[in-house]
Amino acid sequence: MRSSTLKSLTIISLLSTSIFADSQIDEKVISFETKKIKSIIKRNPMVELYSMDMVLKKEIKDGWNGYAFDLDLKANGKRGNQKHYVFSNGDMMASDLIDMKTKRSYKGIMYPTLTKDFFNKEHLIAGNPDAKHTLVLFSDPLCPICLDEVPFAIKKIMDNPKNVALYYYHMPLDMHPTAKTLSIASMIAKEQGIKNIDYKVYEANFGNMIDAYRETDSQKVLDLFNKEFNTNITMAQINDKKYEDKLQHDIKMADKAFVNGTPTMFFDGEVDRTRDKFEEYLK
After folding, report:
1. What's the predicted TM-score (pTM) here?
2. Potential cystine with 142: which of 50, 70, 176, 185 (Cβ 3.0-4.6 Å)?
3. Residue 234 near residue 154 (C-beta atoms within 8 A)
4. Among 84, 75, 97, which Cα is nearest to 32's?
5. Which residues contact 133 (CB under 8 A, 6 or more apart)?
6. Do residues 145 and 262 make contact, with C-beta atoms less than 8 angstroms apart?
7. How far apart are the first and last CA of the chain?
8. How many CB atoms lie within 10 A of CB 188?
9. What whole-number distance in Å separates Cα of residue 36 and Cα of residue 175?
10. Cα three-residue angle 61-65-91, rounded to 5 degrees
11. In this structure, how many other beta carbons lie within 10 angstroms of the beta carbon of residue 145?
């Protein structure tokens, strides 16, 4: 047998050993954490666990990996899904890892890499669809931070469309009772031909017109929207299942991306906690 063949077999053997070792560590982490969570829940009669699945593994550094679990559980009579994170190097487990230089938790990077289905024309609101770089934005039209940062990001790409494609997903938060009305109204207005409506909604700043956390009168907010954009959208249209389904699709995509707050941005498929990486590629 030639030495080159022996060398190739040795490399394959080492790779196989490494992959097998990783799988053993993963199984060890999953088993350990599943037993721990089940033990905790067993002591709490108000919580019922239906399933627990490892949905993401992400390499951190120095042999440490982050693991994300999806918990399907019922708490206080309400059933829902919750993300749970742990970190391990195969010998030790930790509920969090902090970078001592930046003082940031590595939980902040525990997001999946976005798949191609996030980059579709229906959600493209600015930039070049054939651009080398992408920015995916999940936002709530009444979120105070969104109102500061989102119109700036959209306008930047509108004015410099060559190198970045911007995809927008509606994510109205429950803490803002009428944000859903604004999100659906903007969908309808877009269908009616109002250009750059997503940008215009942020520029209008409905957060200055109402108390985003206390206002529950959807008709009042819709009246403000109609006055601002000279539209005649009705509550019957807002409640149309067609638009509810479109909104739920966006919310499901946010869940698929592990997004639980706004604004959240992904640059070239990876979460961007700085929310400004896209600016480096504008010309």
Report:
1. 0.86
2. 176
3. no
4. 84
5. 163, 164, 165, 267, 268, 278, 281
6. yes
7. 57
8. 20
9. 32
10. 100
11. 13
- Per-residue tokens: 171: 């994510």
What's 98's DSSP letter? B
What type of residue is 72?
D
Which amino acid, residue 29? V
Report pLDDT digits (tens) over 233-262: 999 999 999 999 999 999 999 999 999 999
The answer to whether residues 263 and 143 touch, using CB atoms and an 8 Å cutoff, is yes
Which residues sit opposite 121 in a β-bridge? none
Question: Looking at the chain, how many residues does it have?
Answer: 283
CA separation, residue 147 to residues 166, 171, 236, 247, 275 (Å):
17, 13, 27, 20, 14
Other C-beta atoms lying within 10 Å of the C-beta of residue 267: 22
Tell me if residue 56 falls in helix, strand or coil. Answer: strand
pLDDT one-digit tens code per residue, 165-207: 999 999 999 999 999 999 999 999 999 999 999 999 999 999 9
Report helix, strand or coil for 172: coil
Q: List, in order, residues 6 or more apart from 119 with CB less than 8 Å away.
A: 134, 136, 165, 167
- CA 254 – CA 268 distance, rounded (Å): 16
Alpha helices (runs of H) in the chain, residue ranges in sequence order: 3-42, 144-159, 179-191, 197-204, 218-229, 235-238, 241-256
Region for residue 258 given its phi and psi (left: phi exceeds 0; alpha: psi -120 to 50; beta: otherwise): left
Complete DSSP assignment for 234-254: -HHHHT-HHHHHHHHHHHHHH
**Separation of alpha carbons 189 and 126, rounded Å:** 17
